[in-house]
Amino acid sequence: MSGEVQAAAVLGGLQESEQQEDSGHRGGRVRRQRIGLGDWLLPVYTVIAFVFLLIPIVYTLVFSFNDSIKSNISWRGFTFDKWLNVCNVEGGAVCEAFANSIVIGIVATIIATTLGTMIAIALVRYRFRARSSISLLLFLPMATPEVVLGAGLAAQFLAVGVPKDMTTIILAHTMFCISFVVVTVKARVASLDPALEEAGRDLYGSPSQVFWRVTFPLLVPGIMAAALLSFALSFDDFIITNFNSGSVSTFPKYIYISASRGIPAEANVIASAVFLFALVLVIVAQVSRAARAKRLARLS
Amino acid sequence: MSVSVREFAERGADLELVGIQKRFPGFTAIEELDLTIPAGSFFALLGPSGCGKTTTLRLVAGLEEPTRGRILIGGTDVTDTKAHQRPVNTVFQSYALFPHMSIIENVAFGLKRRRIGDADTRAHEALRLVELDHLAQRRPAQLSGGQQQRVALARAIVNRPALLLLDEPLGALDLKLRRQMQLELKTIQEEVGLTFLHVTHDQEEAMTMADTVAVMNKGAIEQMGAPEQLYELPRTVFVANFLGQSNLFTGRVVGTTDTAIAVDVQGARLVVPTARAARHQGQVTIGVRPEKVALHRDAPAESSSRNVLGPGHVIDVSFSGVSTQYIVSITGVGTVTVFAQNIGIGPIASEGDEVWISWDVEHGFGLDDDLADAGKFAADDDTHAIAVQRREALVAELEES
Question: Angle at Cα B286 formed by Cα B281 and Cα B289, nearest 5°?
Answer without folding.
Answer: 160
